[in-house]
Amino acid sequence: MFNKENKNKKSNSIKDFNKGQLLDLYREMLLIRRFEEKAGQLYGMGLIAGFCHLYIGQEAIASGMRFTMKDGDKVITTYRDHGHMISVGSDPKKIMAELLGRKDGSSKGKGGSMHLFDLEKHFYGGHGIVGASVPIGAGLAFADKYLNRNNVTYCYFGDGAAHQGQVYESFNMAKLWNLPVLFIIENNHYAMGTSVSRSSSVDELHKRGIGFNIPGVKINGMDIFSVISEGQKCVDYVRSGNGPMLIEMDTYRYRGHSMSDPATYRTKEEVNCKKDIDPIDSLRHQVLESKIANEDDFKKIDDEIKIQVNDIVEFAKNSPAPDESELLTEIYN
Amino acid sequence: MTLRKLTVREALREAMAEEMRNHPEIFVMGEEVAEYNGAYKVTQGLLAEFGNKRVIDTPITEQGFAGIAIGSAFAGLRPIVEFMTFNFAMQAIDQIINSAAKTNYMSGGQVRCPIVFRGPNGAASRVGAQHSQCYASWYGSIPGLKVISPYSSADAKGLLKSAIRDPNPVVFLENELTYGFSFEEEYDDDHIVEIGKAKVLKEGSDITIIAFSLVVKYALEAALELENHGISAEVIDLRTIRPIDRQTIVESVKKTSRCITVEEGFPFASVGSEIASILIDEAFDYLDAPIKKLASVDAPLPYAENLERLALPKTHDIVRVAKELCNK
Question: What's the pTM?
Answer without folding.
Answer: 0.96
